[in-house]
Amino acid sequence: MSDPLPIDPLDKALNHTLSLPGSKSITNRALILAALAEGTTELEGALFSRDTRIMLTALDALGFETSIDEARARITVKGLGGRIPAAEAKIEVGNAGTAARFLTAFLALKAGGEYPLDGDDAMRERPMSGLLDALVALDAAEFKFHGKPGHFPFTLKAKGYQSGEAAVDARASSQILSALLLSAPTCSTRLGPAGGTVKIVCPDVRPHYVAITLKMREAFGAAPVETNEAGTYTLPSTNYTAPRSGRYAIEPDVSAASYFLALTLIHGGTLHLPNLSGDPLQGDAHFIEVLAHHGLRVDAEHNEWIAVCKTPDAIQRGHREIDFNGISDTFLTYAAIAPLLGGSVRITGIGHTRLQETDRIAGMAAELSKLGQLVKEEEDALTIQPKPNELRARALKARNAGQLLAIDTYEDHRFAMSFAVLASFDLLGDGKPWLAIKDPNCCAKTFPGFFDALESLRHV
Description:
This protein is α/β, with parallel strands linked by helices and 460 residues long. The protein contains 13 helices and 22 strands. Helices cover 29% and strands 21% of the residues.
């Protein structure tokens, strides 16, 4: 593990343009869809990070032809119309939730295939049973567990999809439903040449990433799918096809944008984020509305976001309560800068984040408490009472002892990036570091160049 990284505060208002990497969620969905489709697809603006490399490595192990041009952020995949070449392959999913869920449902296509799957220690604790139970109910796969039932590691014996219906519990992660929506209706399985229908009943799921999945299916030739009040998804057999142009553009990572929007809020100035539309696929775009309360304004009309904060000295506001359920990846961004925002905040709708890369509620409570903030932790919420004077006192005490305050990141990229935003604030007024980030390399999961991007804002 690398040494803690001191963060130099930014010393001036922003006046920059910053190109964000592609979305991890969209890149990994696109890789699955491109492999399922008939024809060759070139993914433009693709993300190259630990999670997407895990997906690429798995596709290569399964016999798919892929090529990468990292300098131009492009990946080319030759799709095989729902066929998986390799009947046997060992798959490692690391701690990549998208790879873990999407590949598991994908592998069930290969009737007769047998695939051992495993992940990092953290992945072995993350929820998979909702997906595994659904695949068994659909008679698409059976599983032999080599540890705790319902968790990695396990061996998947694929049986192929057939017409059928399954109740799906995706409360722990919407990726469970998305995995089935991507692969379950694909042809060349037990659905047979005449096709068939897979029906999924999933009444209690956070909808935002599911909406991304449904829109992306359409981009690869699938018919639109709607759900009813009971959460029923009726999926006719589908022949995915590569887009007519042969290209699919990956949207920049809006979750990553949250860090730089927060930076603009606390430092003031103007930041341009190119290639983001006014109607992005990603629901985390609604984080703009959270920061608007504090005075950040974003123009998102011309395939570029222009973020402006004219008065960073006036961003403090009174108590508020915010439901982050639909934008939960950004709750850490907001919580980390809460010491600078004046009144207390109660962040709700985040219970599911206890089951992500780490227990994010407990981790955030621990790190903010370490910084002298008053924190109340609930099962589904976090209340933060800012104590800026205590934060300064602890930073000064550490400085006088020849040290810096240091943030534990729990092998979770979002802790590293969120607290780097707080650390960029010149808390002690001398332009010198006061906060360091432990294990900064954990950002390789989704944004390997994050700290380079942060450093680029020091230069005009």
